[in-house]
C-alpha cells in the first residue's frame, strides 16, 4: 500500500508572524506528485490552493496530511527561536 508523502522544502518568514511554506510530495490516492506553497497566517490559519477541495486534485487524506506536516514544521521552527 502506498502512502502520502509531504516534505517541507523551505519556510519563508513574512510580516506579522506569517510564513510561506514550500512543500512537495506525493498523493498516493491520486498517484500524483505535487509542489505547492501554503501560507500560514498568525493564529495557525492555513491558506493555499492545495488545501481547497474545490481548487485541488489532491485527495482529502493528502490535504489532511499537508495541514499536519505544515503546522508541525511551523511549531518546531517557533520552538527553535
UniProtKB/TrEMBL annotation:
Per the record, the domain of life is Bacteria
What protein name does the entry list? Uncharacterized protein
